[in-house]
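BUG-238 | component: ligand-complex export | severity: low

The export step for pyridoxine-5'-phosphate jobs runs without errors, but we want the raw record kept on the ticket for reference. Input record follows.
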Amino acid sequence: MPKLGLNVDHVATLRQARGGMEPDPVTAAAIGELAGAAGITIHLREDRRHIQDRDLELLRRTVKTSLNLEMAATGEMVAIACRVRPEQCTLVPEKRQELTTEGGLDVITSLPAVSAAVQALQQAGIVVSLFIDPNPDQLKAAAQTGADAVELHTGAYAEATGQADRERELAALRDAVTLGNNLGMTVHAGHGLNYINVAPVAVIPGIREFNIGHSIIARAILVGLDRAVREMVALLRQ
Ligand code: PXP
């Protein structure tokens, strides 16, 4: 049964809109865990636009399930992760101007830098996952870095319009899960998944973890976080 990693970045985005204390992603994480999330995911961006260093420090001390830190493969971030030691780090590409992580990491062209980051994090006892597009060459490069896992970018599937496009993107995800597992890596998935489009991906055998943020926090504003998390956990279990 796949696990839900609840991404609480958007709680921090709302807090940063006023620069105050509320709402607190640390409280959201605790409510999410109580509602059935098997992990908490945060992205500490270079520009600190939502999650702050204080959030990472507090979540490290309070998360009872598993903390997944999304980060760029930079020296600053690797040093922070090695000091704070979340259970897992997911390496993502990062551009200052983007609204959210736009594409997967290009592991092929950045093999030495990504491999060095993977090694440093693993030496600190951290499980390392690489956020990549469902592309066979990226998967093979990811395996070469020694990463423990890959997170398949589901954005192209989520944005596909029409049945044929959606089926094509689903097939790419299915093939990527099989290849990732055959290469000895754990497979996760995420980005753009919501209550309507998650089911066809959730039934693909071999995906261990789904990292979902925007749709859950958006629903939480209307129905409450406890209910929003429970409803997503139920969809992943079906
Ligand atoms: N996985 C990764 C690597 C991400 O960067 C993001 C977005 O922060 C997500 C999952 C969650 O995406 P969404 O907010 O669209 O559910």
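Assignee comment: Attached the raw record above. Strands lie at 3-7, 39-43, 67-71, 88-91, 127-132, 149-153, 186-190, 207-212.
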